[in-house]
């Protein structure tokens, strides 16, 4: 019987990223299901996460992340069953807002593909 090795990708953060980071790409991982959602935020990340929380509490299906927690509301809670990681931030000050929006979307798509967050292996339904 042959056993295949499992390989893990390792990514090194070179920025100081936190909940106040804006123009950022983030991962929300459902700990119970071991599924990831890759998203983007133009505003501070804490504001974006509060929007996700609010939608889930209000029963608003605004994206795949809220849909996941609404479908599993008897067994999952956003507060207890997620880990949140900021993975990238745009820092180019010379760009227009529209250029930053386009680049942020492109980076979100890159990370969704790189991390395999598109269904069925992740929570994102589509790229972008």
Please, could you describe this protein's structure?
The protein has 128 residues and is an alpha+beta fold. 32% of the residues lie in helices and 17% in strands. It has three helices and three strands. It has a three-stranded antiparallel sheet with strand order 2-1-3. β1 (24-30) and β2 form a beta hairpin. α1 (45-58) crosses α2 (64-71). The longest helix is centred in the C-terminal third of the chain and has 19 residues, at 97-115. It is globular. The N and C termini lie far apart (41 Å).
List its salient traits.
128 residues; alpha+beta; three-stranded antiparallel β-sheet; 3 strands; 17% strand; disordered N terminus
Topology diagram in text:
Elements: E1 24-30, E2 35-41, H1 45-58, H2 64-71, E3 82-89, H3 97-115
Helix pairs in contact: 1-2
- State which percent range the strand residues make up: 15-25%
Oligomerization category of the chains in this entry = single chain
The average pLDDT value, as a whole number, equals: 89
Our measurement of the CA-to-CA distance between the termini, rounded to an integer number of angstroms, reads 41 Å
| Largest sheet: number of strands, sense, barrel closure | 3 strands, antiparallel
Percentage of helical residues? 25-40%
Shape: globular
- Total helical elements: 3
Structural class: alpha+beta
- Gyration radius, in Å: 16 Å
- Strands ordered across the widest β-sheet: 2-1-3
Q: Can you count the beta strands?
A: 3
Q: Return residue spans where pLDDT drops below 50 for at least 5 consecutive residues.
A: 1-7
Reading the helices and strands in chain order gives EEHHEH
């Amino acid at each position: 019987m042959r056993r295949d090795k499992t390989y893990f990708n390792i990514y090194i953060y070179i920025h100081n990223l936190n909940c106040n980071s804006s123009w950022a790409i983030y991962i929300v991982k459902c700990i119970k299901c071991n599924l990831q959602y890759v998203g983007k935020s133009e505003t501070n990340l804490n504001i974006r996460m509060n929007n996700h929380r609010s939608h889930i509490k209000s029963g608003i299906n605004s994206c795949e992340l809220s849909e996941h927690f609404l479908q599993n509301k008897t067994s999952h809670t956003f507060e207890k069953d997620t880990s949140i990681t900021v993975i990238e931030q745009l820092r180019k000050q010379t760009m227009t807002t529209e250029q930053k929006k386009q680049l942020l979307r492109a980076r979100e798509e890159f990370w969704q593909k790189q991390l395999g967050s598109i269904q069925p292996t992740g929570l994102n339904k589509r790229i972008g």
